[in-house]
Task: structure prediction
Amino acid sequence: MSLERFINQAVSSWMSADGPDSDIILSSRIRLARNIKQYKFPTLFTNDEAKSVIHMIKKKVEEKSFSTLGNLELLLMDELQPLQKRVLMEKHLISPHLAENSSHGACVLSENEELSIMINEEDHIRIQCLFPGFQLSEALNIANEIDDWLEKEIDYAFDEKVGYLTSCPTNVGTGLRASVMVHLPGLVLTQQMNRIIPAINQLGLVVRGIYGEGSEALGNIFQVSNQITLGKSEKDIVEDLKSVVSQLISQERSAREALAKTSNIQLEDRVFRSYGILSNCRIIESKEAARCLSDVRLGIDMQYLKNISKNILNELMILTQPGFLQQYAGGPLRPHERDIRRASLIRERMKMENEEIGG
Amino acid sequence: MICQECNQRPAALHFTKILNGEKAEFHLCDKCAQEKGDMFMLGGAPGFSIHNLLAGLLNIEPTFQKTKQDPFQQEEILQCVKCSMTFQQFIKVGRFGCAHCYQAFEEQLIPILKRLHSGNSAHNGKIPTRIGGSIHLRKNIEELKQKLKESIAKEEFERAAEIRDEIRLLDSKLKAKDEGGE
Ligand SMILES: [Zn+2]
Ligand SMILES: [Zn+2]
Result:
């Protein structure tokens, strides 16, 4: 398969860089956790109950009564190859938990992959809407529509006092987790994250790296999300997150300005070195790839690099994960082979940019 | 001891997982435990034993770990009648068994919810349309019944009759809703 075709098939619409504030906010996500009243939660449910949950959702999906998002497709986890599940996970459409652990897990995907409904994960139903850029309210609106559409026939587990009942008490109430994926190279380079993360935590929000292990944030990409789900309305949760993220955006922008003023040539050097590595490497580990991709994306946003699409960071952060590399290679790869394959994929992708500039 | 996940922070949670008879020990810091939470707190896996993990996350006193209680003086076991999950199981697994567990453990749950949700224990968000409709109706009926009592007490019988008709109307709406919802 040509790389271009592979990318076109692999890329979901949330990875594009068209959304508002997309120089800093890569994507916005809303997740609503719901359970069906008459069945035990996934921790304890019987196989028959699990099947009934899938059946209920399947019936709704086949009705095709929800047209805004195009055709919906239901995938059963048991029928997917491990690699296919891994790819869905790397695209953030399903959780590792659904891919690896759930019995009778399934998911519903919309054509553009902006909607994914996980079935029989930790809760019976988890509605997820994933949009490019800073679009939390928009994502919440769609998630609510899907929620209302499902609720027409499904009796949710709901309690007047504590709201939507979830498997884990950390999700009860609204069942809402709102999050944004942010690219913060300016704040990292100016060493401000160590100060900012605790400040954000104090406001009841959680900041963590999305890629990488432990406390590292590969590619300077962080996720900011709400911690509490009970006691506040959905709108307030989203508005509170939005206001903190807006401040984060303006701090990142001033950090970038400061960098341009104080170390212009050093920054330009860094951007072009990384550009050189990505265009010429023959072996590259995910850590180095992430660092260079972040530099190049910063270089694009700060206009050191022109005529390169901004999508490159979002796209390549996903497409150079082990699952995608193996899918592109058409078979399993050992770690060292992955690093070679990663290098060639990145190089070819960079070449596509140059061709577009040339012609 | 250092956390085996990040090799940076001191390990705060120590537990053993037994899989296929193999014993594996875990030593994690709070942060990594929270991140790995899903992996370790997965319910339902047989032979799964976590000591104190949720207790650590929720900062509650691990009273259930008290060294050997007198078996004849055991406290009453708190259990959900619908799914048979006990409160101790819930603390271990960190997941409820069914929707009814929330009622079964209501008293114990309130302080936990407050701790998890910055002091909140009451829902203040969306109400599902169908079930929600009857919640609103039920609240209205309750209010009207109160008014009815007051009217009768004041011997305003005409007003009382009006209110009674209103209640009847809402009652029939509620019945229709409940039947339609089944
Ligand atoms: Zn750790
Ligand atoms: Zn229960």
User: Anything to note?
Assistant: The radius of gyration of chain B is 25 Å. The longest strand of chain B covers residues 13-19. The pocket of zinc ion (ligand 2) is lined by residues B 80, 82-83, 85, 97-98, 100-101 (CB under 6 Å).
